[in-house]
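Appendix B, example 12.
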Amino acid sequence: MSDSPHTESPRQAREPRTAAPDGLLASLKQLLKTVLETVQVRLELMGTELEVEKSRLFDVLVMALLSLVFLALGLVLLCGTVILLFPDGWRLAAAAGLAVFFLAGGLGLLFVARRRLRNPLGMFHASAKELARDRGEL
């Protein structure tokens, strides 16, 4: 047997031949798989962070509500003390004055809150505006 340029050596016969399109296709599949795995890891991380943030937010909400209860009780007791400091003939007027003061304050805050909730811009207005501007620049 002579070694002609057309004959394969035993080593070449054992190595699988890969065509360029199959290699490119395999590389693209691997790239897609890597990208999908990265996206999955990021989504799982976001989910975990969202759960932690939700738990922290719930804890803060409970503490805020409890603090409001304590502040309300303290305010009621302070109002009672102020009313008791007035002479007998003026206690009813003092109680009515405090009631009008707190009702006016509560109604004023309610109107401010309603006005803020009726904001025509909506959620994520600035982000949506930036995205629209980005689309226009492309």
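The chain has two domains: 18-85, 88-138. Residues 5 and 64 are 85 Å apart (CA to CA).
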